[in-house]
Every structure is written in structure tokens, then in C-alpha cells.
Inverse folding.
């Protein structure tokens, strides 16, 4: 990753891969389907049960189980990327998976219910909560007169105070 100044980022991993296992839907349960995903949290491995056999293990950076809350997911997956973006680094989060696996639920979620919001609305809240603390000034200095262009009054001049202790000789 590179920041806006072109410096390279010295983080541990530039690409991290997470897996989120969604709960079976009511319909899937009613049809007699059962969970075929076996999670090994210690080593972050997933094994699938297929025709009574187990597939080879698939390794991830972290496994999110069906009970994982949206905010927990956000804190682990998106929070560090958004923090880095606020420092000027580029970052990307994308959801990949077959239809019905929970990409929309994870990325968008339910906007009406705060705890069900997904990564996108939580990212906006995160960014706006940070930038609301920033202070932005937009000044014009012209003929030794200073004007605050965000004051709403373009004719209002700011007072210039001279500090003799730091004035250059
Ligand atoms: N972690 C979860 N907890 C509870 N319900 C979930 C979860 N993930 C997905 N679901 C539900 O499973 C269903 C399918 O999820 P979703 O629509 O997000 O899948 P998708 O991958 O975006 O599908 P498509 O590719 O077809 O758009 C939805 O009803 C969603 O609410």
C-alpha cells in the first residue's frame, strides 16, 4: 500500500482474508439442510463435510461464526483499514462469495436497525465522526489583510497581531 505521499506502508499484512459463516435460513432448516461447515478457531481453518467425508482444510486470517455481530465484524475487518485511510493510505474491502452467502448483509446490512448496519454505513459513521473533529480554515491573505473565507462575510477582516518575540530580525 502507498500513502498519498508515496511512502510505502510497513504493516504486517497488506491483504487479509476473512470468512463469515452465515446461519442457516428458516427455509434451509425447514428443508432439512444442516450445517456442513466445521470451524477450527485455534488455527483459523475451515473444513466442509461432503458426502460424509471431510474436505481439505482452508486457512483464513480469521473466521466469523454465524453469531458474529455486525459491529464485531466491523471492528476487526474495516476499522483498521478506515483508520489507515484517514492517515492517507489507500484501502479496499470487498466481499466475495456465491449467491445468498451474505455479501449484502455484511457490506450493507439493515440500515433501519443500528446493530444490523453493515460495513458501508459503519464506515461512513466512522469517517464522519473523525472528520467532525478536524478544524478547517480557509484564509485569504491579500495586501497584508487576512480574510476568513468560511466566515460567511467576505468583507470581514481578521486582526493581525504581531509577536515581537518570534518576529524575524
Ligand atoms: N450473518 C448473517 N446473519 C443473519 N442473516 C444473514 C447473515 N448473512 C446473510 N444473512 C441472510 O441471508 C440471506 C442472503 O444474504 P445476502 O442477500 O446478503 O446474500 P448475497 O451474498 O448478497 O446474495 P446475492 O449474491 O444473491 O446478492 C439474507 O436473507 C440475509 O439477511
Amino acid at each position: 500500500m502507498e500513502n498519498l505521499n508515496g511512502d510505502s506502508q510497513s504493516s504486517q499484512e497488506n491483504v487479509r482474508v476473512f470468512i463469515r459463516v452465515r446461519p442457516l435460513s428458516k427455509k434451509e432448516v425447514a428443508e432439512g439442510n444442516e450445517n456442513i461447515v466445521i470451524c477450527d478457531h485455534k488455527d483459523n481453518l475451515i473444513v466442509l463435510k461432503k458426502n460424509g467425508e471431510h474436505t481439505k482444510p482452508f486457512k483464513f486470517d480469521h473466521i466469523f461464526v454465524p453469531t458474529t455481530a455486525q459491529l464485531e465484524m466491523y471492528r476487526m475487518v474495516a476499522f483498521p483499514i478506515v483508520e489507515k485511510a484517514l492517515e492517507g493510505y489507500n484501502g479496499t474491502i470487498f466481499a466475495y462469495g456465491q449467491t445468498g452467502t451474505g455479501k449484502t448483509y455484511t457490506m450493507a446490512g439493515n440500515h433501519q436497525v443500528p446493530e444490523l448496519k453493515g460495513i458501508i454505513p459503519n464506515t461512513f459513521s466512522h469517517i464522519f465522526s473523525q472528520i467532525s473533529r478536524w478544524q478547517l480554515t480557509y484564509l485569504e491573505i491579500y495586501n497584508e489583510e487576512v480574510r476568513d473565507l468560511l466566515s460567511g462575510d467576505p468583507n470581514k477582516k481578521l486582526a493581525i497581531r504581531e509577536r515581537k518575540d518570534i518576529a524575524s530580525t
